[in-house]
Amino acid sequence: MIKHIVLWKLKDYVQGKTKQENAYLIKTLLEDLNNRIPGLLKLEVGIDFSNTENSADVVLYSEFESKADLENYQTHPEHEKVKPFVAQCRLERRVIDFEI
């Protein structure tokens, strides 16, 4: 099994919306990918409530059967539709992919 985790720090305002509003929109857009991309077993998005200097604003946790399934997810048209908005909102991005 492959686990794919991404953390984002967001800009304060994008497209007239606050960081918090965009965080919830990102959550909705990404979680809507569940059951739409082959090989994607699970995808959850969390929004930070601690608001500390060291915390990220949004985290994505996802699971895949194989590395090939993760690669398919990365380039899948449904995921490609979400990427530009997330990229526009982010200040920083950190990712880790690992196999268990």
Structure summarized in a few sentences:
With 100 residues, the chain is α+β, with helices and mostly antiparallel strands. 35% of the residues lie in helices and 38% in strands.
Description:
The protein has helices at residues 19-31, 67-75, 77-89, and strands spanning 2-10, 13-14, 17-18, 40-47, 58-64, 90-99. The relative contact order is 0.32. The protein contains 3 helices and 6 strands; from the N terminus they run βββαββααβ. It is globular and about 35 Å long. The termini are close together. The strands form 2 sheets. A 4-stranded antiparallel beta sheet has the order 4-5-1-6.
Cross-sheet strand order for the largest sheet: 4-5-1-6
Mean pLDDT figure: 97
Major sheet size, sense and barrel closure = 4 strands, antiparallel
Low-confidence stretches: none
Name the helicity range. 25-40%
The arrangement of helices and strands along the chain is EEEHEEHHE
The counted number of beta strands is 6
Q: What's the tally of helices?
A: 3
